[in-house]
Design goal:
The chain has one domain. Helices cover 35% and strands 30% of the residues. The chain contains 2 helices and 3 strands. The chain has a 3-stranded antiparallel beta sheet.
Length: 82
């Protein structure tokens, strides 16, 4: 059985969706997430690239944070010394 964490987000400008973002992260730590981005409104995206790209980076940063948490052993299971 595979367990995954799914994240979904949007980048919105004045209540209109410019970009949809999603990812699925395996909880076993064996695979990296595949981040999907879909431009819903090209004109809105083109006229607000800086803001939309900031939202995309924020989403990516959250995905990487979760990946790192999954792939980092907990303090109680880390070996100390050699």
């Amino acid at each position: 059985m595979n367990k995954n964490i799914t994240l979904n987000a949007t980048s919105e400008i004045e209540g209109q969706v410019a970009v949809y973002m999603s990812t699925s992260i395996g909880t076993d730590g064996n695979k990296n997430a595949n981040i999907n981005k879909s431009i819903a409104n090209q004109e809105l995206y083109n006229s607000n690239k800086t803001s939309v790209r900031a939202d995309m980076k924020q989403f990516e940063d959250e995905v990487y944070k979760i990946e790192d948490e999954i792939n980092t052993p907990s303090i109680s299971s880390r070996k100390v010394g050699k």
